[in-house]
Task: structure prediction
Amino acid sequence: MKHRMWSALVLCGMAGVVLAATPARIVISKGAAPKINIAVESFGGDANAQQVAAVLASDLVRSDWFNYVAAANAEVIVRGTVSGGTLNGAVFSRGGSTPVLQKVCTGDGSNPRGVAHQMADEIVRNIAGKPGIAQTKIACVANGTGSKEIYVMDYDGANVKRLSNDHTLTVRPRFGPNRRTLVYTSYRSGWPDVYIMADIAAPAPRRVAYYPGLNTGGAISPDGRRLAVILSKDGNPELYVMDLASSGLTRLSRTRQAEASPCWSPDGSQICFVSDRAGQPQLYMVPASGGEARRVTFGGYKTEPDWASWSVSAEVPDICFSARAGRQFQVFGLKSRTGEEMLLTQDAADNEDPCWAPDGRHIVYARTVNHRSSLYILDAFTGRTIELNPNLRVLGDCTAPAWSR
Amino acid sequence: MNTRLLTRISVLSLAVVLSAGMVGCKKKPHATPGPGPGGLEGIGPVSVAPSIDTTGIMPPRSGDPTQRNQPPRLATDTVYFAFDSSSINPSERPKLDDMAAYMRENPNQIITIEGHCDERGTAEYNRSLGERRAQACREYLASTGVDGNKLQTISYGKEKPADFGHGEEAWAKNRRAEFIITGQ
Result:
């Protein structure tokens, strides 16, 4: 599916306040990618059939590659039968009698949403030609128990599960290259340490960095073998890479200032991180094996980078970050190839801690208004934002979201 | 004991801790002893401008910073910082000098320096900035001859404000370093 409708608007007035010193052009997206009109017909089969159909329809809308329409207006129609936890799905083009896609999605019946998510990803991959996100997970920090604990949920906010039980500050979750591994920081020992859960389905945290001082900011490399991490054991917060097999460390920064928030390039060769070595915090890049760090943003207060694992289009930035814009924080994008910065959110809120979905299109972030925080999803293609799921408010303030790869 | 002697002792003890670290300090999360690919000597080619080497390697952790002994904290010695800064203001130096004197009188006490930030920054950057603030106090105290091995740091970033308000008055109280006794 082609999407050439992206258009950009230079924000002269407001950019001037924040980023007067920034050479990069600041734009906000006002475009819309064309969508395929799709319908999901009533499913046959057992008692779960209509729930599966409804979840599938919701998934197709959330993918943002489809408009959900009545069958009469659809270019593509989905039909299916659900029985014993298994969905037999088929996709037809309008007027066609031969399916353009058939898929048997198997489950044990305990999670009907799961088979719907499988089918949705098949349709997104085969009909829209894009990576699907319906089977991904989102982790976040929430404070409803009186402590900061880490929770994980399906990408649509369903099936919420608390992963930590540390009764303290448990923060900064980040997924590894698969959908099961999570790295995070917890003060459960009394000190900030970095832990890895190899499988969030069976939480068994392993403490991987517990040096004197600060241990935080863990980010697992795309090959799963290395951990970028911030340690202050040598007398100052610095960026290191730990070999996870040997625990051996390579030090990547050497400053008298603060480093924070590393993330990996999709090929694992570069690390983007925050440093305030030039005054206010800015984004830098450094080869993951060591070398000269290169400053990539200029002016203002710029933090919390995340690098997309897949690039949907040269017109969509591949790094997202949060930066001060006037009195508030907004989500920005950065094109790593050109250094062009783009303002991606713009509302009366603090929008922080952005993290890419593996489709390179959606970003989850924490939106704070009147000191209450909840999770929102941004479509970086169109600039449209929606609350992830209002039901999550029962968890308290939700912050620091991470999207599985 | 004069200051120069104290300095010598702290340099000596720092060297002892350094060499202890090389042979497999228990706080290292792995058992690989000695210099090697993962040791302090094994740092790959690193050059980051502007490059100033950091001071003092941190001592092994001691005590539980959440279990505060009496007095729970040395409240009068809270050191305050300017926005987004970890520099010690001249106005705060007398507090650190008092702290140094206290530590000289109580040379066996282990002090944990807590670094804190106001709510305006982002969480992880503030966690590093809070650590920088605690480390700046540690460096200052060590420069007066206090034994750096009795000084450990912890950063809470913006997670534990002293004042829950949302204006400059509250923020100024929250950009701080506090000192707690965590062991003998």
About this structure: Confidence is low (pLDDT under 50) at residues 1-54 of chain B. Helices of chain B lie at 3-22, 93-105, 123-143, 168-174. The first strand of chain B starts at residue 79 and ends at 80. The longest helix of chain B spans residues 123-143.
